[in-house]
Amino acid sequence: MMLKVRPFLFCLLLLAVASLALGTKDPELKRCKHQCRALQQIGEHQRKECYEMCEKYHSEKQSKEEDTSTFLPYRGREETGEEEQYGEQERENPYVFEDKHFITGIKTQHGRIRVLPKFTERSKLLKGIENYRVAILEANPQTFILPNHWDADAVLFVAQGRGTLNLVRRGKRNSFNIRPGDVIRVHAGTTAYLINRDNNEKLVIAKLLNPVSTPGQFEHFFGSGGRENPESFYNTFSSEILEAALNVRRDRLQRLLGQQREGVIIRASEEQIRAMSQHEEGGIWPFGGESKGSVNIYRQRPSQSNQYGQLYEVDGSHYRQLEDLDISVSFANITQGGMFGPVYSSRATKIAVVVDGEGYFEMACPHLSSESGSRGRQSRGSERETRIGSGYQKVRARLRRGMVVIIPAGHPVVNVASNNQNLQVVCFNINARNNEIVPLAGRNNVMSQLEREAMELGFGVPAREVEEIFRSQQEEFFFQGPGGRQQHQEGGRADA
């Protein structure tokens, strides 16, 4: 295993390079070292080498000119003027996170756990959610994730695959089978372990974590394990302490805590998988009454639905475990060629994870506009007062599986699915209590509710024109997107 350390560190550095190219000098080095520190698979000597490689790369990078190709955005199949527009807007987009922004905290040949850095490392505009972290677990078929606990409350969403989750808390163990669409709350300090019980499909779980110890930072604590890969926290204690606490001889302790070297995510036999999978779907939660251990968002009645998409929501009224977190979970399935919005959330900031499909989103952001405007005013040395409603920056980016998008409260946004597949997005909604999704188009949109005099004064045109425009769309929330609409119009012209 140790012979593989140096190639692994080289791969780690390549991962770091992708993310370093996006930051400023100090955060670059800090992020690379954080990757080294987060790795469970290596010992202290290899960790020191990893730090040195970060320092060396950072030093060499500073001595060279910036390679502009590093900043090229994702390209589609065609290089068009529209692609250039995407490129310019994606370069300065603090709300979109791609694969290159993730840190690979744990990795074995059987799976990995990727974590986004603190949101404020990307932009101060995300300060409102700086204490939250996002992680993605990917486990290959027939694998076992070692028991561990986190110093963070967590909400899990099963995006793909089937597994069995075991939680140990307050002297009791609860085991239940999980499937796509399941939402599970895991309390901080709960010992958790799970298996991917499928023979073919990878298990993918998106996690929202709210650290309870150090704001914005969380750690995995492994009781099982060995001296490294992963290191068991039992090995931290002196031998005499463990002998007294566990009432066993030292030689037995040394054998117990020196065997596991295969990593956090390991292969399990069919017999072991079968033995740990004998549970009902879902399960009853033994910690605090009758609340279920999980809830499946796909089995809820959609809050909005038509031929262009469906919206499913789970909050504290559906799943009591979410009440004290002030978090809800929503899932949007946008039909190919359709779109959701424009809408805005009255209170909640959405941390959206693309589960499947492709498309794009657009959002109106006053903060980016005011930032660029303030830089210009400072350079001219005038206009110190902030102008309300002075403008908005269009934030626009392509969406594909695995991407994370932040949508702050109050920001108008629209998601559009591609013309060849559905776009599926799960949202962790922060500050969800009393949140309202406000429609800006379609039946019952907010503008159609204004008085006629308010319409005339607000838009400077007769109220009749405002009504005709804002009351012409009869669908609600989900609509035919620009691509589908264009195809329909072209088909109509061809028939004519």
Would you write up a description of this structure?
It holds the Pfam family Cupin_1. Residues 366-390 are annotated as: Disordered. This is Sucrose-binding protein. Keywords: Signal. Residues 1-23 form the signal peptide. Helix 1 runs parallel beside helix 3 (44-63). It contains 12 helices and 26 strands. The chain has 496 residues and is α+β, with helices and mostly antiparallel strands. It has helices at residues 5-20, 25-38, 44-63, 81-91, 119-122, 239-246, 250-256, 270-275, 366-380, 452-459, 463-470, 482-495; strands spanning 96-97, 103-108, 111-115, 133-139, 143-150, 152-160, 163-169, 172-178, 182-186, 191-196, 203-211, 220-222, 265-267, 295-296, 304-306, 309-314, 327-334, 338-345, 349-356, 358-365, 393-400, 404-407, 413-417, 423-430, 437-439, 478-480. The protein has a 7-stranded antiparallel sheet with strand order 1-22-19-24-17-16-15, with no helix packed on it. The protein has a 7-stranded antiparallel sheet with strand order 2-3-4-11-6-9-14. Helices cover 26% and strands 30% of the residues. The protein is elongated, with a radius of gyration of 25 Å. Among the domains are: 96-225 and 263-277, Jelly Rolls (Sandwich), CATH 2.60.120.10; 300-369 and 392-485, Jelly Rolls (Sandwich).
